[in-house]
Amino acid sequence: MNRRKVSIRPSIGSSIRERLTSALSPWTDHPVFDFLIVLLAVGAHLFIVKYWHSGDFLAWTTQDSRKDLYVGGSALMGLIAGFAGTAIAQYGSSSGPIVIALRSAHGKKIRKNWLNIAGWLLVGALVCLAALVADRPDSPNGSQWLFEFAMAIAITKFARLLFLFSLILSSADAEVEEAPAKKTARLTIPDAQ
To answer: Is residue 168 part of a domain?
Structure first.
């Protein structure tokens, strides 16, 4: 019997997708990376402000404006947490074979990510409220840094939430694509008399 090896080269799109997935794997597997990103971003901005005395965009605003911004930031985090709740409900109500396979393979990681998002958004909202309390009429009193930290949390957690939304939506789309096409039936509804 003559055997020969046949190599099947995946399409370019799937190759890029696999590389991207493997590159993102540490980020998706360990939500603590978001906290490191937040610390680096806020730390870099703090360094720029202290070293070059430039870029402190909240120090020159009025106290009322800052307080409105802090309240708005807290509300924004509540809104993002609502989106997370919607994604969890969608994930929980999906029951097709692809979603079941996704749950069995990655359910623990997905749950860990959602709990991390919800927990850190609560922390971010509380930090915005702490900034509201710390702000003084004569000076922001460091409250702008608390607010910036909270907003950086919101941005990183929203990015993680979008990733999870994409995962769920692509699973739902895959369900529809794999479902056999059904013939459309024509219904006739009699007039009510």
So the answer is: yes
188 is a domain residue? no
- What is the rounded end-to-end Cα distance, in angstroms, of the chain? 76
What confidence tens digit (pLDDT) does each residue in 118-131 have? Answer: 999 999 999 999 99
Q: How far is it between the farthest Cα atoms of the chain?
A: 89
Q: From residue 100, how far is each of 22, 72, 91, 144 by CA, in Å? A: 22, 38, 10, 45
pTM equals 0.76
Q: Does 2 reside within a domain?
A: no
Domain of residue 82: give its range. 62-176
- What does the block give as tokens for 119? 């927990």
- Per the structure, how many domains does the chain have? 1
Q: Could you tell me which of 87, 181, 74 has the C-alpha nearest to residue 131?
A: 74
